User: Which sequence fits this backbone?
């Protein structure tokens, strides 16, 4: 198996477990080390600082089309505002709307478990929120303004949706690299 497959398998086995000191970096560094991948400390050639923008492998230049399962995401001041507007109109004329949600990762590292669609990924992460064990989560890593859709449900409700996802801050994606043969990471 490739390093990317191995770090996903390793992380899935650790769902619900706190790895090491509980930091997001520790989870990813350990996943790489135990899966034969090159770690951020190996890539740098020495210790990394707590507040660095870590490098995890080969930089992905196109977040919309280049991210694949097993990639490592590095976030800095990341905010995803989901301003998708949904309006449900009932057969009696009453209606209701749903609005904004927000996710943030000020300084964070995660592993892509699955690409749901371009710019939307399922991740494996730890320490988000602070102190949480390894978990799955879905994040949008690129902005997206979609066309309005309208559908009628079997109960007669009419649902109109206008997707509007705004991502700010920085997200870097890296394809992990295998450690040199014969060298333990």
Assistant:
């Amino acid at each position: 198996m490739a390093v990317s497959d191995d770090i996903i398998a390793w992380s899935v086995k650790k769902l619900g477990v706190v790895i090491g000191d509980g930091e997001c970096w520790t989870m990813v560094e350990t996943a790489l080390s135990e899966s034969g991948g090159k770690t951020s400390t190996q890539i740098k050639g020495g210790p990394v600082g707590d507040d660095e923008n870590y490098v995890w492998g080969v930089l992905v230049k196109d977040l919309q089309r280049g991210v694949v399962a097993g990639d490592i995401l590095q976030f800095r001041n990341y905010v995803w505002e989901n301003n998708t507007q949904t309006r449900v109109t009932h057969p009696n004329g009453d209606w209701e709307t749903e609005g904004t949600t927000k996710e943030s990762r000020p300084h964070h590292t995660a592993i892509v478990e699955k690409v749901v669609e371009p710019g939307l990924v399922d991740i494996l992460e730890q320490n988000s929120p602070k102190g949480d064990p390894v978990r799955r989560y879905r994040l949008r890593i690129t902005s997206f303004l979609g066309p309005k859709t309208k559908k009628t449900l079997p109960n007669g409700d009419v649902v109109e949706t206008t997707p509007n996802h705004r991502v700010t801050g920085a997200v870097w994606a890296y394809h992990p690299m295998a450690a040199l043969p014969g060298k333990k990471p």
Residues 3-13 form the longest helix (11 residues).
